[in-house]
Design goal:
The protein has 4 helices and 7 strands; from the N terminus they run βααββββββαα. The relative contact order is 0.23. It has a single domain, classed as Alpha-D-Glucose-1,6-Bisphosphate, Chain A, domain 4, CATH 3.30.530.20. It is an alpha+beta fold. The chain is about 30% helix and about 40% strand.
Length: about 150
C-alpha cells in the first residue's frame, strides 16, 4: 500500500542557480531540516552516490543511508532512503520572481513495515510523524528561502 505523498512548496525571490547551489550541497541539510543532523555524500555529488545520514527527534537519534536517484542540475535532486524505501526530492521551477521550490516525500511502494513499526512504537504513530514531516518540510523550505534571498 502506497503511503501518502507528503509535499510542501515555496516561492523564492532568487534565481534558480542560487537556490540549486543551496539545495544541492547536501552538507547543508542539517542547516535546513529540523530532523537531519548529518547528510554526507560518499564519493561526491553524482547520481548513484550513497549518503550517510543522522537524524534526530528529541532525545532519539537514528542513522540512515540513502542513494541519490536523480541529479539534474538546477531542476531536481532526489534520494531514496534505504531503511524505509521513501524517496525525498527537491524540484526547482523558474518563476517570474525567481524560483518555486517543491519538496516531496514519495513512498510509491509504501514505507517498509519495520519503519512503520518503529514509528508507531517510538514516535507517536505514523499519522503524527507524517504531520511532523510536513511541518519540517515547510520549515526547511522557509530556511532555504531566507538563505537564498539574503
Amino acid at each position: 500500500m502506497a503511503a501518502p505523498l507528503l509535499q510542501a512548496q515555496i516561492d523564492i525571490n532568487a534565481p534558480v542557480s542560487r537556490v540549486w547551489e543551496l539545495v544541492s550541497d547536501l552538507g547543508n541539510m542539517p542547516r535546513w531540516s529540523p530532523q537531519c543532523r548529518l547528510m554526507k555524500p560518499l564519493g561526491g555529488m553524482r547520481q548513484g552516490a550513497r549518503t550517510v545520514n543522522v537524524n534526530r527527534r528529541g532525545m532519539l537519534f537514528w542513522p540512515t543511508t540513502s542513494r541519490i536517484t536523480e541529479l539534474v542540475p538546477e531542476k531536481k535532486l532526489a534520494f531514496r532512503v534505504n531503511e524505509n524505501g521513501t524517496v525525498w526530492s527537491y524540484e526547482l521551477q523558474p518563476t517570474e520572481a525567481g524560483t518555486r521550490l517543491v519538496e516531496t516525500r514519495h513512498a510509491e511502494n509504501g514505507v517498509k513495515p519495520i519503519s512503520n513499526t518503529l514509528v508507531n512504537s517510538f514516535m507517536g504513530g505514523v499519522s503524527n510523524f507524517e504531520q511532523e514531516l510536513i511541518e519540517g518540510m515547510n520549515s526547511s523550505l522557509a530556511r532555504i528561502k531566507a538563505a537564498a534571498e539574503n
